[in-house]
Amino acid sequence: MKFSSESNHKITSTQLFIPLSLGLALGTLGDTILYVALPQEKILLQTGLTTGAVGLILGLNRLARLLTNHPVGTLYCYLPRRKIMIPAAFLGVIASVCYALSTNITLMIAGRVIWGLAWSGLWIGATTMTLDISTDENRGKMSGILAFTTTIGLTICSLTAGVLCDWLGFHLAMWFTVFACSLNVIVWLFFLPETITSFRSKKNQSLLPQTQAAMNTRSLFKISGFIGIPLFAQNFVYNGVIVSTTVLWLERFLGDGVKLFHTFVPIVTLAGIYSAFRILIGATSGPIAGAFTDRTGNRKTALVIMLIFGACTTFLLGLSIPILAFTGAILGSIATGAISTLVYAWAGDRFQSESASKAIGMINSMGDLGSALGPIIALNLIPLFGLPKVYSSLGLIFIAAILSILKV
């Protein structure tokens, strides 16, 4: 018998987001280190990887999630959240062990596939738990708070990642992430609340007319697929192309590093600082966009505006004038924080709680496809056309996303 869930609206945002965001930050440290450090030559020597393999390694976990997002989203329709979230966090520990032990591509591939499965459970769970405690009046705000608190954790990870690699070397830094991921499991065992109070038979629950389409599998996949296209565009551009080439982009302006107060700061550390700064800026735009659209009720219009904004910033990123390029980086961060928040809030508007996790699984698959293709395509196109031209052309992805969501 199929069951639907009853959300626990008595849980406050503080009770949920403090342990949730802390755990996500601890769990993603290893993944952040890979993105910050792997493109650099000395790190490649430590890991036994080739430059050509970096794009595959960075995108492999997301390719794996294309297979796991839907099953995991369906599983959340039947099980309490903690019963999936905590095992997913433990898989993060195993993935970090693979990174720490890797001296060739085999263990690295294993770690990335395991991390892909783990993140399916973690992010679908985090988003579903957020929708569990939200209402029609505050869904955008709650989605923004999730984005904000998670982003703060990712900011700390980005700052820590470059420093750890420069200070400890790749493998010792990864053993530190094993400890961090293990601490995450312990934190959630004791402090992560359950956002579902009960599961009851769906035959005893009346459905509102506007949710009928959400309960139809074909309609669910169609609608969530279109809603997920902006997330595909954002992840392809920022979480795929730009994140995986941050070191290369900074080297255009800063070389191997800079000297600050008689101390030389290596480029990997600077990449971590830059990534943290960019993420931190994006964290502020999510709650603002979510709360604003709670009042106006028009998330699609706001999403179109942010996609246009994102297209303009990618053009600036490709310029060779430092002040314009860095301005594009800052403004682009605003767009990324708002886009993801609006996408998940829009999904919450369209789907009832018993089908929301399935829709989120589909939307996440769209985002993961973008994140997976971004590094692979970028690292193969840059040698042919150069980094500036690749960056400047990224705005076309946002334009295509705008045209697609007009159909929803």
Provide tags for this entry.
408 residues; mainly alpha; Growth Hormone, Chain: A; two-stranded antiparallel ribbon; 17 helices; disordered N terminus
Oligomer state equals single chain
CATH topology: Growth Hormone, Chain: A
Based on CA atoms alone, the radius of gyration comes out at: 20 Å
| Biggest sheet layout | 2 strands, antiparallel
Report how far the terminal alpha carbons are from each other. 32 Å
Helix content: over 70%
How is the largest sheet built, in terms of strand order?
Answer: 1-2
Overall CATH class: Mainly Alpha
Which structural class best describes the helix and strand composition? mainly alpha
GO molecular function, one term: transmembrane transporter activity
Membrane topology: Multi-pass membrane protein
Subcellular location: Cell membrane
Keywords: Cell membrane, Membrane, Transmembrane, Transmembrane helix
